[in-house]
């Protein structure tokens, strides 16, 4: 009862079907080949044309199945794997047409009734299908369109609006911690809160914490902050702000690196920035004594920090901060109770995730040395740390820092009480518990991510984009005389230009010109997406755009 159409050009599929017949759920292409002794280049061209042809006839949730002989695809699933330049590069070709590889499994001809492979060198002869693989492709989400976004926030007693930094446009106000969210970050936060409430009276005060702060955070490097310019006409009234000091956190104190003009009594320019931590909110609560000793105060919400590009370095993540005032001399036993409680909660969570066995360890602040990840290193800028909370999972039992614990004996100016606080990176915890290797996946707009966590269940994550292609480009430039090159600013610019498609930036060479003393740097930039299609042409365009923006915003001279 099937309709059979002959002489179909696989690169012009829509020409063979009426508009109403162009919504195929499956398109199969078993062992595509140009015929005779066609080389890899011609067969790549064939596949590229085929994938582009599929875009016009495949249903939105449809699949493309392409079977290739062992080694042809060029993915790690091939055993043995060919060198990239000698393969058909099927994943990169599909990405150029907007498709991602979502599954790959052995091609078993014997399971298809009546199937017979033929066509060896365009003859009626069979060819070897041992080790052949079936590659299953699906549509990628559309490229992100970064139109300017304004956000409203409370500053003192005033409501102001500001333009969101472009690199954060798709991450602001996502609502991952809201009551109707099934995101794993919220699940972990709720489970931790429930566990802690078994040991301590608990008060959740996360609502209405302002996104914007004013001034400069003490001790924090200027380049790690997302500075904000208020929308035109939004300059806040100083008098109204001072009246609202009791309800918000405004930084007006400066560290030892304060600008000389400020020290000499010159007026301080109004500076606003996105909150890099919830700790100042806790300090404001402590200062007002708006708490009961022995009651655990829980704050949670997204925080924003400029940082270098790495799989576990996040410009935005969800922080959970717990604060407790305890009797002086009991702080160590209180810390151990907190850690034991978190350990018990983590153990109960991992029972539903086969293959994941988290172990939590408490390490002295002096024991980690230079092994600090970006999260722990930044926390060190905010104030003295007594302990690091590390979570290890097989096969990395050594642990990654996901939290810090502080004691502030003088915060309350009390002889009887000591403040203990613990800051947890919920995003890092979600990655470790669910086996998510790239932080960007937590923020994907692809619905296939949240489908894996129905009703807040935690499971081992299975990527829907396998073996994403990567594209390597180098950029070299002269640094302005007498200036230090700001790597964090460079990485932040690369994040913005590429819409978080840059996965790695590595310094390849540093050269100082004899005589003039001019300094040249060469970096290797690797483009790769974790959740959507990225073709080589799109990556090349990003690289060109990055070069232009570097000249304009970093003041370098390209070589």
TrEMBL record:
GO BP annotations, alphabetical order: rRNA base methylation; translation
Gene3D superfamilies per the UniProt record, alphabetical: Bira Bifunctional Protein, Domain 2, Ferrodoxin-fold anticodon-binding domain
Protein name: phenylalanine--tRNA ligase
Domain spans labelled FDX-ACB: 466-559
Broad class of enzyme this protein falls into: ligase
Gene Ontology MF: a single term: phenylalanine-tRNA ligase activity
Protein localization: Mitochondrion matrix
Catalytic activity, as annotated: tRNA(Phe) + L-phenylalanine + ATP = L-phenylalanyl-tRNA(Phe) + AMP + diphosphate + H(+)
Enzyme Commission number(s): 6.1.1.20
Keywords linked to the UniProt accession: Aminoacyl-tRNA synthetase, ATP-binding, Ligase, Mitochondrion, Nucleotide-binding, Protein biosynthesis, Transit peptide
Pfam families reported for this sequence: BMT5-like, FDX-ACB
Leader sequence segment: none
SUPFAM superfamilies: Anticodon-binding domain of PheRS (SSF54991)
A Gene Ontology term for the protein's cellular component: mitochondrial matrix
Chief place of localization: mitochondrion
Organism placement in taxonomy: Eukaryota, Metazoa, Chordata, Craniata, Vertebrata
Top-level taxon of origin: Eukaryota
Family: Belongs to the class-II aminoacyl-tRNA synthetase family.
């Amino acid at each position: 009862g099937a309709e059979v159409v002959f002489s179909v050009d696989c690169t012009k599929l829509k020409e063979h079907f009426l508009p109403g017949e162009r919504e195929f759920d499956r398109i199969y292409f078993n062992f595509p080949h140009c015929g005779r002794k066609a080389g890899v280049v011609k067969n790549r061209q064939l596949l590229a044309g085929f994938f582009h042809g599929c875009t016009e006839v495949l249903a939105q949730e449809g699949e493309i199945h392409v079977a290739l002989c062992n080694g042809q695809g060029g993915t790690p699933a091939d055993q043995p794997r060919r060198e990239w330049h000698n393969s058909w590069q099927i994943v990169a070709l599909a990405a150029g047409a907007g498709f991602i590889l979502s599954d790959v499994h052995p091609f078993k001809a014997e399971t298809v009734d009546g199937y017979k492979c033929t066509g060896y060198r365009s003859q009626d002869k069979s060819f070897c299908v041992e080790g052949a693989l079936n590659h299953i492709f699906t549509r990628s989400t559309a490229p992100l369109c970064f139109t300017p976004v304004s956000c409203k926030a409370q500053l003192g007693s005033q409501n102001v609006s500001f333009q969101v930094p472009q690199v954060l446009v798709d991450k602001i106000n996502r609502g991952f911690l809201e009551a109707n969210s099934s995101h794993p970050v919220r699940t972990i936060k709720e489970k931790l809160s429930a566990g802690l409430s078994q040991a301590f009276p608990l008060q959740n005060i996360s609502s209405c914490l302002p996104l914007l702060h004013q001034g400069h955070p003490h001790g924090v490097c200027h380049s790690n902050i997302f500075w904000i310019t208020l929308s035109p006409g939004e300059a806040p009234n100083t008098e109204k702000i001072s009246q609202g000091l009791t309800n918000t956190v405004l930084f007006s104190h400066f560290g030892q690196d304060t600008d000389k003009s400020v020290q000499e009594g010159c007026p301080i320019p109004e500076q606003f920035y996105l909150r890099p931590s919830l700790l100042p909110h806790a300090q404001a609560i402590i200062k007002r004594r708006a708490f009961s000793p022995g009651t655990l105060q829980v704050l949670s919400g997204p925080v924003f920090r400029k940082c270098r590009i790495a799989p576990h370095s996040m410009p935005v993540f969800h922080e959970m901060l717990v604060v407790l005032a305890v009797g002086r001399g009991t702080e160590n036993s209180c810390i151990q109770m907190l850690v034991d409680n978190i350990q018990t909660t983590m153990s109960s969570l991992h029972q539903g995730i086969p293959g994941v066995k988290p172990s939590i360890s408490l390490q002295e602040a002096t024991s980690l040395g230079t092994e600090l990840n970006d999260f722990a290193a930044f926390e060190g800028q905010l104030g003295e740390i007594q302990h690091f909370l590390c979570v290890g999972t097989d096969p990395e039992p050594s642990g990654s820092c996901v939290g810090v614990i502080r004691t502030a004996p003088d915060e309350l100016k009390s002889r009887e009480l000591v403040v203990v606080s613990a800051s947890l990176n919920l995003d890092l915890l979600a990655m470790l518990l669910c086996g998510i290797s790239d932080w960007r996946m937590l923020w994907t707009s692809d619905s296939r991510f949240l489908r894996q966590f129905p009703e807040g269940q935690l499971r081992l994550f299975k990527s829907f984009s396998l073996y994403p292609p990567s594209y390597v480009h180098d950029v070299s430039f002269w640094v302005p005389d007498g200036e230090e090159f700001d790597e964090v600013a460079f990485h932040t610019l690369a994040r913005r230009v590429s819409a978080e498609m840059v996965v790695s930036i590595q310094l390849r060479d540093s050269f100082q010109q004899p005589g003039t003393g001019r300094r040249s740097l060469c970096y290797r930039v690797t483009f790769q997406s974790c959740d959507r299609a990225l073709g080589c042409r799109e990556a090349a365009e990003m690289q060109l755009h990055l070069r232009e923006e570097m000249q304009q915003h970093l003041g370098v001279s390209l070589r």
